[in-house]
Design brief:
By secondary structure, this protein is mainly alpha-helical. The protein contains eight helices and two strands. 66% of the residues lie in helices and 4% in strands. A hairpin with a 3-residue loop joins strand 1 and strand 2. Helix 1 runs parallel beside helix 8 and helix 5 crosses helix 8. It is globular, with a radius of gyration of 17 Å.
Length: 184
């Protein structure tokens, strides 16, 4: 499968990754889903973090492209492809970057763990779908002409932000898999 490039391809790839991720998150019993992995975030915390970051991107996508250009400027270089965005993100993480304000906040122990799990997953699904729906409202030209602010990568084109979102979601699934494997 080739990496997505158009807005429609990116939205389709995000939806596919979401479906695959949901299957992975469903493989956990509720207690494991909600429990921290050692000192690291729980699977639920990873999903909440992804939801928070997706909602931030969607906030930018809700604005007209002209407003985004006025707020954050126009592109200064062509949009980078998926592999470049993934590698740029990984390099930034290797230098010690963290989630900052997008880290999931502490949560009290839920009185109904199954309902909490359902809520986390429902909010995540809604966030993914809203973002994907917003992508189609942007022209291919606007995806490359407008920039949005990223807390680690600076101002990047909207297309780059969407490609980052895909690699970011994949990164968190892989992180959970790696951390759980290290515990056994």
């Amino acid at each position: 499968m080739t990496d997505p490039t158009s807005g429609a391809e990116i939205a389709a790839a995000l939806r596919t990754l979401h479906r695959e991720s949901v299957e992975y998150w469903r493989s956990f019993d509720t207690a494991t889903f909600l429990a921290p992995i050692g000192e690291a975030w729980s699977p639920a915390d990873n999903v909440r973090h992804l939801t928070k970051s997706i909602r931030a991107v969607t906030t930018g996508l809700k604005l007209p492209s002209i407003a985004v250009r006025l707020l954050y400027g126009g592109a200064t270089a062509p949009s980078r492809d998926y592999a470049t965005m993934r590698d740029t993100y990984r390099a930034r993480l290797a230098k010690g970057a963290d989630a900052g304000k997008y880290a999931p906040g502490p949560r009290p122990t839920p009185t109904d763990p199954d309902a909490e799990r359902e809520r986390v997953m429902r909010y995540h699904a809604a966030a993914v779908e809203e973002m994907c729906g917003r992508i189609g409202r942007w022209s291919e030209r606007a995806l490359d002409r407008c920039r949005l602010p990223h807390p680690l990568l600076g101002r990047i084109t909207v297309r780059e932000m969407l490609l980052f979102t895909r690699c970011h979601n994949q990164h968190h699934v892989e992180n959970v898999k790696r951390r759980l494997a290290a515990q056994t």
